[in-house]
Amino acid sequence: MNKALKIVSILEKEIEIDWFLKHQDPFKVLIKTLLSQRTRDENTDLASRRLFSKFRNAKQLAKANLKGIETLIKPSGFYRVKAKRIREISRIVARNNGRVPRDMDGLLKLPGVGRKTANCVLVYAHREPSIPVDTHCHRIPNRIGLVKTKNPEQTEIELMRIVPKKDWIKINELFVKFGQRICKPVKPLCYNCPIERLCEYEDKNLK
C-alpha cells in the first residue's frame, strides 16, 4: 500500500464523513461554493443562510434585485462581484429548467466558476469522482509531504495521480475536517495526529 492509500485509510477510520447520506441540491452547492471564494467558512454559512432564506431556487434568484442579493451576501466579502455572478448563473440555470451541469466543461462555462467550484458541485451534489482542492486540500498534502506543488491546480493533478479514482470523492472532506480539527494552519496538533508517523512536516508540534 502506497503512502497516499495509507493516509486515506487511516483518516477514514478517524474521521466520520456523513455527507454521503445527505441529498444536496446542486444549485445550492454551486452558489454556496461561489460564496466561499476568498472568505472564511463561517462567513460563507451566514451569507448562504441569508440568501436561501429569501430565494429558494434559480428561478427566484434570476429575477432578484442585484442590490438585494448584495445585502444578503455581504458577510461573504466581495459581495458586489459575487452578487452579479450569482444572478448571471441563476439566469442560465433557470433557462435550463433548473438543471446544473454535471460535467466539468459545462460547469466551467458558468460565470465565476473555476475548477474548485466545479469539483465541489461534482462531488457534493452529483456524487461524481473528482477532487475539489480548497485551502486545506492544498495545504495539508504539501505539509505532510504527500505532494510538492505550488498551486491548487497542480495539487489536484498530483492527487488524482496517486490516489485511486474510487477514493477521489472522499479526499476533500477528509482533508477539510482533518485540517479543522488536527492539522491546523497554526499550531497543528501533531501530538494527537493519527498519521504523524507518515508525516514529513519539519516543525512538528509533539508536545
N-to-C span: 30 Å
**Quick one: biggest sheet?**
none
The name of the CATH superfamily of the largest domain reads Hypothetical protein, domain 2
- The average pLDDT score comes to 94
Helical stretch tally: 11
Helix content: 55-70%
Number of domains: 2
CATH architecture of the largest domain: Orthogonal Bundle
**CATH class value of the largest domain:** Mainly Alpha
- CATH fold field value of the largest domain: Endonuclease III, domain 1
Helix-strand makeup class: mainly alpha
Instruction: Note the overall shape.
Output: elongated
Spell the H/E element sequence: HHHHHHHHHHH
Strand content: under 5%
Stretches where pLDDT is under 50 for at least 5 consecutive residues are: none
SSE layout and pairing:
Layout: H1 3-14, H2 26-35, H3 41-54, H4 58-62, H5 66-73, H6 79-95, H7 104-108, H8 115-124, H9 135-143, H10 152-162, H11 168-181
Structural overview:
The chain has eleven helices and no strands. It is mainly alpha-helical and 207 residues long. It has two domains: 3-18 and 132-198, Endonuclease Iii, domain 2 (Orthogonal Bundle), CATH 1.10.1670; 25-124, Hypothetical protein, domain 2 (Endonuclease III, domain 1), CATH 1.10.340.30. Helix 2 (26-35) runs antiparallel to helix 6 (79-95) and helix 5 (66-73) crosses helix 6. It starts with a helix and ends in a 26-residue tail after the last helix.
